[in-house]
Amino acid sequence: MRVTKVTTRNGDQGKTKLAKGDSVYKNELIINAIGDVDELNSVLGVCISFCNDESIINEIKNIKE
Question: Helix, strand, coil: what percent of the chain each, to 5?
């Protein structure tokens, strides 16, 4: 069985929790920044997978750290 929709009784009121426990609105800049960093990390992973130059791969891995 595949679950495609999840609902809660109270909803989230447009908020989410950060790793340190703070509750922020989903449209705040920190949430956008976290998403942008996550997307960049994914793109760098794709770059690594297509690259044949070990020195470039190492540089990208340094960026990812």
Answer: 50, 10, 40
In a domain, 33, yes or no: yes
Tokens of 62: 């340094």
Do residues 41 and 56 touch, judged by C-beta distance below 8 A? no
Residue with tokens 């679950």: 3
Query: Is 34 part of a structural domain of the chain?
Result: yes
Give the per-residue pLDDT at 55: 96
The model's pLDDT over 16-39, given as tens digits with 9 standing for 90+, comes to 999 999 999 999 999 999 999 999
Q: Are strands 23-25 and 15-17 parallel, antiparallel or unpaired?
A: antiparallel
Look at residue 1 and tell me if it is in a domain. no
CA nearest neighbour of 62 among 51, 48, 46, 52? 48
